[in-house]
Design brief:
It comes from Metabacillus litoralis. InterPro entries: NETI. The protein is of the alpha+beta class. It has one domain. It has one helix and three strands, in the order βαββ. A three-stranded antiparallel β-sheet has the order 1-3-2, covered by helices on one side. The longest helix has 10 residues, at 18-27. The chain is elongated and about 55 Å long. It starts with 6 loop residues before the first strand and ends with a strand.
């Protein structure tokens, strides 16, 4: 018998909404306790200088086991 971890991170995927991710958490037996947003950068070269340009964000929820 395997036990679930007490805490688990859930990433909002590209093809789902925040509500879809929260529903997925509930189906797996977790409730959200923390929301984190991390920027996503891409490298662009301008005038032989590498610049990091923001191109999106990644939303991560931390869930606690019910």
């Amino acid at each position: 018998m395997t036990t679930k971890p007490k805490k688990q991170k859930f990433i909002v995927e590209d093809n789902e909404t925040i509500d879809d991710c929260l529903d997925r958490m509930r189906q797996e037996g977790y409730f959200p306790v923390r929301r984190m947003e991390q920027p996503i950068f891409k490298e662009e070269i301008r005038d032989n200088i590498v610049e990091h340009v923001p191109c999106g964000r990644m939303i991560v929820f931390e869930g606690k086991l019910l």
